[in-house]
Structures are given as C-alpha cells and as structure tokens.
Design goal:
Oligomer: heterodimer
Shape of chain A: elongated
Helix content of chain A: 40-55%
Order of helices and strands of chain A: HHHHHHHHEEEEEEE
Order of helices and strands of chain B: HHHHHHHHHHHHHHHHHHHEHHHEHEE
Strand content of chain A: 15-25%
Number of helices of chain A: 8
Shape of chain B: globular
Largest sheet of chain A: 4 strands, antiparallel
Largest sheet of chain B: 4 strands, mixed
Structural class of chain B: mainly alpha
Radius of gyration of chain A: 33 Å
C-alpha cells in the first residue's frame, strides 16, 4: 500500500506529459474535442492542482481541491498575462502556454523535492490506489450479482428515464438557442475609392428580410425622378449594387428605395456630391 | 398522512433519490428552455420559467439539502443550480451578449487578441483596459483551447457563475456551520440581486466576486489558524489578492474592507495581527494599481465624487423617491409581491438571527475566533446591507445592486443560521417553511435583479436606449461602418448606438456631452457641436421616438443633471422632430438607412478616407 501511495508523483508528471503531448498534437485543430479538453485542463485546472500538490499534499483527493484548483488556475492565467505585459512580451499564444507550463513544472518539481526531502508525506493521494479500490469495489459488486436481480431494475429504469429526459431538455434548449433576428433592408452609399479624381461611388441594397424581396430605386432631385431602377429582386442575404460616377450626379439628389407595389419610400439616403 | 409520506421518502436509498432528482432537474431544465420557445405567448413563458425553476430548485435541495447528503452531493447540487440559473441569461441572447458591461469586455478581449497587448485604443469605456484580469483569463482559455471568442466568453462566464455558490458553501463550512446549514446559506447567498443577471455576464465584476469569495474563505481559514499556524495559506492569499487587484476595482476594495474588518476584530478580541497584515497588503496593492493607472483613478474619482455628494444630499436633505421601483415594468403583479417580500423576509431572518447571537453573547465571548467572524459578518453583511437599503429609491440605486454580492456573504450566513436552527426539529411543516422561504428569497433576488433587456425575447422592443435594442439591424449598421469606412471614426449616437458602434464597429464613441446635437432644435447649434468635436459620423436610432428610455436617459446618465435642458424626456419617447432634423442640415449626408438606424456622414463622402488603423 505504501509503495502504491508513492506512485502518485511519478503518475502526475505522466498525466501532465500526456496532456502536453495532446495539447501540442491537437493545438490549432479548431473545434477538436481533444484540443479543447487538453486546453481547458491547461488553463483551468493543472496549474492550480500542482500548487495544491505543494501546499496540501495530504488533501488532494477531495472535491474542494478540484474547486480550488479551478480558481487558482484562473489566478495563474491572470498573473501570467500581467507578467507578460510587465516583461514587455506580447500577449500571444506561446507566451501564455509557456508561462502556464513553467508554473506547472516548477510547482511539480517543488512538490517532488519536498517529498524526497521528507517535508511532507503523501498518504491518501495515490491515484493508482484509488483506482484499485474503485475497481475492486466494482468487481466485488459485479461478482455478487450472479443474475439480474430486482436491485438493479429500479436504477436501470431510472437511468433510462434520466437519459431520455436529459436528451429532451438538451434538444429543447438547442431549439430555444436558435434565435430569429429582426428582419430589415438597408440602403447605403459606399465610396469605391479615396481617389478624388475618380469620385466613384456605389449604391447598395442589402436584403435581410428573411424572405425574397422586390424593390424599386429612384434618384430624385426636388421631387422629380431623374433615374429609376426597377425589379430589383433579392433573396435573403443578397445585395444589389450599382456603381455611379459623380459626373452622373451634378447636383445634390436623393435616393429613394421602394418595396414593390408601394408608393411610400421604404429607405432613403442623400447623394451629396461637393 | 404527510408525515408518513415524508418518512417513506426518507427510507428510499440515497442513490435512487439522486437519480430521481436528476430526472426532475432535467425536466426543469427542459421547461426553462421551453420558456424561450414561447416568443409570442408571454404568459406561457412565465409559467414554464417558474415551473422549471421550482423543479430545478426542488431537485437540487433533495440532492444536497438533507442532513444525510454527502459533501460531494451538496457541491454537485450547487453546481447544478448555478447552471440552471445561467440558462435563462444564455437563452435570452445566445448569439452575443447584449449587456453593455459584457460587451466592453468582449471588445477588450477581441482587441487584446488582435493587438497582443492590453494597451488598446479606448473607444467608449475607459476602465476595461486598466483592469484586464478577466481578459487575461479569456486569452489563456482562447489560446489553449482554440475556441471562438463567443464560446470562450460563454464558457468562462458559466464557469465563474457556477463556482460562486460552491465557494460560498466552503466559506460557510469554514465558519463552523454544519454542512446542511452551509448548503442552505449558500442558496440564500445566490439570492443576492446581482447573481442571476450581473454575475452571469462576461464582466470583471463576475470574476472579481469569485475571487472575493475565495479571499473571504481564505481569510476565515487564516483567522481560524491562530498564531503560528501553517504557512500554506499565505501564498494562496497573497496570490488571490494580487490578482483581484488586477481584475476589478470594486471587488478588490471590498476584499480590502472585509479583511480590514476581520483584522481589526481579530486584534481586539484575539490579539492576533496576521489577518490585519494581509489587510494592509491588500490596501497598499489597491492604491498602487490605481496610481499605476492614473486614467482609471481620474475616472473613478470623477464618478464617485458626484455620487458621494448625491448620497449625502439624499441622507441629509431630502429623502424623496427619485427612483421609482418597477417603473413601466412588464412584470406580473404576483412577481412584484414576491419582490416586495424579499427584503422583508431577509430583514426578519437576519434580525431574529442577530437577536439570537446577542442572546448568546456571553457564550460567544469565550470563543474569540467565532466571535471575531460573527462580528465581521454582522457588519459586513446584514447591518451594512440594510443601512444601504433606502438608497434603492434614490438615483444611486445601482450601488445597492453592485454591492449586494459582497454583503450577502453575511446576509446568507445570518439568515441560514436562524432558519436552519428553527427548522431542525423533526417537523415536516418546518422543513416545508425552510424550502418555501428560501425559494421565495431566491425568486425575489431573480425578479429584482432580472435581465435588464427583459427576461424573455419578444417580437418588438418595449424600451429604447437599453440592451434590448441591440438587434440585428443595429449591429449590421455598426459592422457596415467598420467594413466600409474603417475603425476609430468619431461617432456620436444614443447610449446603445454608442455601445454597438464601439463594440461591433470599433468606432470611437467616447464623446461628451453626446446628447447636445440631439436635444437642440437649432440646426446651427448642432452643426457647431459637430464641427467643434470633429465628429465623423452621427447615428440616429429612430426607436428613441417610439419608446421611453430603459435607464431614464437616452444618451448618458449625466444628461439628467444638465441644467441647460428644459426637458430631458426621462419617461416619454424622444420627440421625432429632434431626430429627423438632421435631414435638413446641409453639413450632413445621410449615407445609410435600414429603417430604424440612420447614419449621417459629416464630410463629403469621398473625403471620408480609408481605415485609420489596421490589424498587424
């Protein structure tokens, strides 16, 4: 038992090493689950846990250690960011990853050093022992059940109901998360170039009405129509563009956008040419 | 009959109870989700919302509220309830945050990722860059996981939100409360009016409160240690205080005040100086960081000085009701009744509890550690909270909202101390009262501290210049300006246009007094303002002319105090003629119109130029 207990410290570096390898192997794979999990472990758990290994080696296998590890890891995230800025480094990926790993390795080395020097003696904190205990318990309970008896029926039914209700709840929540945004149409004037000799510009109609639309665009001066574009048909997310030269607009005019079949202008902008 | 049912329920094995509770919890979560599918039927949405919350609360209490529950069950229960209370805030607007405090931090995070420094251009709110702790944690998560900014924002907010009740639970346990009492106390703690909404957002306050609770927990442990205790607490405390100073000004100030109180009582009652030493360290760090960022100092001073004057005026001169509770609120009457019961119930529980403690004073004096903590939590808890209560009807009501997550550490402690002791006797009725009172307090906290954009999504906004107007068209306009005319143009608009064009359009909207061109009917006065301030773009949100403002002002809270304005339209829509007058101004060109949002350029279009800065 005692020798098994001593295996925690070789076990922990192994876990950290595997996490590092996983992180390096999968970093950059956007949305990869291994990258996400190993990244979360690195930024939200491991640095804090290694500090707990140094400060409270006898209390590692407790739920409050996990909670503290989360909070302390976030503290380390903050301090790494502050240290990078103080040392005039850029706040980039390698800075944070190297910083967090330096903290982890330093704390791990410290805890090993303390253990070797006999400063602390870990007792309950042996992952292998815990695994063994857990495994033995499962084996024992499995060997005790020669056949499916009534003791397992109720939990089995309840777990099935739980899975069904949890799936239902998740589905409902995913449905509710699909928001419907407000429909609208935008009319805008955009400059094509900053080159004053060209003085080109364009007029754009954006359809965000969540349905196909038909528009009519009029250029007016003193309420008199001087140019017109009809049957502008746009699907959702489509845009309609017309490029104009300033020579085509010699005096200040307005652009009026109408929905098909309507007399009231729907959108309006000013053509203001100096 | 009821007693027999309860006795029967008691005999059910623990694991079966947990499984059944989990099923009920899942049902509750499903109902909460359904509330956000009922966009057109608001009554059904309310029923699903409260039905879901009752089921979630009931199942969590079954998992963690019994005397037989294991500590891991209690922690698990608190994590579940925290998650359930995060769901409504997430589902209200899953695509992006709409609360302005959160938006500023999202913008800071985005800019810090792009520019690789916290020295980011200020576009609206000056503080976020000076307290970049939340952004550092966000960057660490962003870089290590490769997730999108929105995912990191949601994940980090959720993680911080659900850890708060657990930290409160451990703090109460450290104070010597039984596990079951500590569990109920942490349920009352999360009934603080900030927890449901403010502390669900991606804001430095959320992170700050987590660290405040962590420091409080370590402070109690330190106090318990006595003289010559182990040194393993010190590094944790020092690191936590250092990081809270970098994260949030109010949280670090509250941590310093709390530690000072604990330190002083510890010196008086125990002749122990170590906690006071930590308090001095926290005070020194707070000031060092503030002086290191003079801009923050001047901003905080500029903000606090008129507030302090206003509070003094409220206390000393007139106590008129300037801040009407539930003004134009869409809340059902029953919810208002629960909201009014909230302070009454807490006052009653805390008063009875304090009375009990006073009654046992002689007994407590013999236990100086306990007495130190009781006194600290009484002052930094119910006494301060109730002393600040009247401010809720003043113009400084926001302070009560902001301070509540800190003071509730004491309020939760004293409330639970009384009600749990009272319900200990083997009486089913008393257990039911414990359940009902705690749920009512939690419900009151949710109602008072509700989502400022309205609890549910609706087809049409009800108020102007508030978070609910952050709709797709406003964001399209902000994105359009950035895409076509670059970043950091000086842009003037109402409050939420300023926020949207700052965060989604990366424009500079830090203009003061931004209400001037809108209030004046005089076109030349408006033009003079635009010329003097060198404004590039002016944004009009025509919804201001259809709805009264969310926060009693359209542009900036200081507009209420502008003596030069004859009328500041606090409770009525902004006059349309003042908004469409810009069409008549020869110096302005209407360049964008999407129905509600109109953008005017102040220079001839072709001179507007190209982006003024680009990403490295």
């Amino acid at each position: 038992m005692r020798s098994a207990r001593r295996r925690l410290y070789p076990t922990m570096p192994a876990i950290l090493f595997v996490t590092l390898i996983a992180y390096l192997a999968f970093a950059g794979w956007d949305g990869n689950i291994i990258s996400i999990v190993s990244g979360l472990l690195l930024s939200w758990f491991i640095p804090g846990f290694t500090l707990m290994m140094v400060l409270y080696p006898n209390k590692l296998v407790r739920i409050n250690t996990l909670v503290m590890s989360f909070v302390i890891s976030l503290i380390f995230d903050v301090l790494v960011g502050a240290a990078l800025e103080l040392l005039n480094f850029r706040l980039n990926e390698s800075g944070f990853v190297v910083g967090l790993w330096l903290i982890t390795i330093t704390l791990l080395t410290t805890s090993n050093f303390m253990r070797i020097r006999g400063i602390v003696s870990p007792n309950r904190a042996d992952l292998k022992t815990i695994y063994k205990l857990l495994f033995d318990k499962i084996k024992k309970s499995a060997s005790g059940s020669r056949s499916i008896n009534s003791n397992y029926i109720v939990p089995f039914i309840l777990i099935s109901i739980l899975l069904i209700t949890a799936s239902w709840a998740i589905t409902i929540n995913i449905q509710a998360a699909k928001t419907e945004s407000k429909p609208f149409t935008a009319l805008a004037i955009e400059s094509l170039t900053a080159d004053l000799s060209e003085k080109n510009f364009r007029v754009v109609v954006y359809n965000q009405e969540k349905k196909p639309m038909v528009y009519r665009l009029e250029m007016r001066r003193d309420s008199i129509v001087i140019a017109e574009w009809e049957n502008i048909m746009l699907d959702q997310d489509e845009q309609w563009v017309i490029e104009l030269l300033s020579s085509q607009v010699v005096e200040p005019s307005d652009l009026w956008l109408f929905r098909s079949g309507e007399d009231q202008p729907y959108r309006q902008v000013h053509l203001f040419i100096p | 009959m009821l007693k027999e049912v309860i006795m029967y329920l008691h005999r059910i094995p623990n694991n079966i109870k947990v499984l059944v509770s989990m099923i009920i919890f899942s049902l509750g979560v499903g109902l909460l989700g359904k509330a956000y599918l009922e966009v057109s039927n608001i009554e059904r949405a309310y029923i699903f919302f409260w039905g879901g919350l009752v089921l979630c609360f009931g199942s969590v209490v079954t998992i963690g509220g019994n005397r037989q529950s294991k500590p891991i069950q209690r922690v698990f229960g608190l994590l579940l309830l925290g998650t359930a209370l995060y769901i409504p805030i997430y589902l209200r607007n899953p695509d992006f945050p709409i609360f302005q405090d959160a938006l500023f931090h999202v913008q800071s995070l985005e800019l810090m990722r792009d520019l690789k420094t916290s020295q980011i251009p200020i576009t609206f709110f000056p503080i976020a860059g000076d307290y970049p702790g939340l952004e550092y944690a966000g960057l660490a998560t962003l870089y290590t996981t490769q997730l999108s900014i929105n995912s990191v924002v949601q994940l980090l907010s959720l993680g911080l939100h659900i850890i708060m009740p657990v930290l409160a639970f451990y703090a109460y346990r450290t104070l010597g409360l039984e596990d079951a009492t500590a569990f109920w106390a942490s349920l009352i703690y999360i009934a603080n009016i900030g927890y449901f909404f403010f502390l669900s957002s991606f804001s430095y306050g959320t992170f700050g409160v987590v660290l405040f609770l962590f420091i409080a927990l370590l402070g109690f442990k330190k106090n318990r240690q006595g003289k010559g205790g182990a040194i393993n607490l010190a590094p944790l405390l020092l690191l936590a205080i250092l990081s809270v100073v970098i994260i949030h000004h109010t949280s670090s100030a509250m941590a310093a005040i709390y530690l000072t109180l604990l330190g002083i009582t510890s010196i008086i009652l125990k002749r122990q100086y170590s906690v006071f030493g930590v308090a001095i360290y926290s005070i020194v760090l707070w000031f060092v960081w503030l002086f290191y960022h003079p801009q923050s100092f001047s901003y905080l001073y500029g903000n606090m000085a008129p507030r302090a004057a206003s509070i003094l005026e409220f206390i000393l001169k007139e106590q008129t009701q300037t801040h009407q509770l539930f003004l134009n609120s869409p809340l059902p009457p029953i919810e208002r009744v629960v909201a009014y019961m909230y302070p009454i119930l807490l006052l009653l529980l805390c008063a009875l509890s304090l009375w009990n403690v006073l009654d046992r004073k002689r007994h407590l004096i013999n236990q100086p550690k306990l007495f130190t903590e009781y006194i600290t939590l009484a002052i930094f808890g119910p006494l301060s909270w109730f002393a600040m209560g009247p401010l809720i009807i003043s113009d400084n009501a926001e302070i009560v909202y902001r301070i509540s997550p800190y003071l509730f550490l004491g309020v939760g402690f004293y409330s639970a101390l009384f009600i749990c002791e009272w319900s200990q006797k083997n009486s089913v009725l008393r257990r039911l009262v414990l359940f009902s009172v705690t749920f009512l307090i939690l419900a009151g906290g949710i109602i008072i501290g509700d989502n400022q954009a309205g609890r549910f999504r609706s087809n049409e906004v009800q108020r102007a210049a508030g978070p609910e107007v952050l709709t797709a068209d406003l964001i399209h306009a902000a994105n359009w300006l950035e895409m076509k005319y670059g970043r950091l143009n000086l842009t003037v608009g109402d409050l939420m246009s300023s926020v949207a064009f700052s965060v989604f359009g990366m424009q500079r909207t830090d203009i003061y007094p931004n209400w001037t061109p809108f209030y004046t009917p005089d076109l030349s006065a408006a033009q003079i303002f635009m010329d003097e301030q060198k404004i590039d773009y002016l944004v009009v949100d025509l919804r201001d002319s259809r709805f009264p403002p969310r926060y009693r002002y359209y542009f900036n809270q200081m507009e209420i105090y502008d003596a030069g304005l004859q009328n500041h339209f606090s409770d009525k829509p902004f006059p349309l003629y003042l908004l469409i007058k810009f069409d008549e101004m020869p110096g302005l060109q209407r360049v964008y119109d999407n129905g509600d949002i109109v953008i005017y350029a102040t220079k001839p279009l072709l001179l507007s130029g190209s982006p003024q800065f680009s990403l490295p």
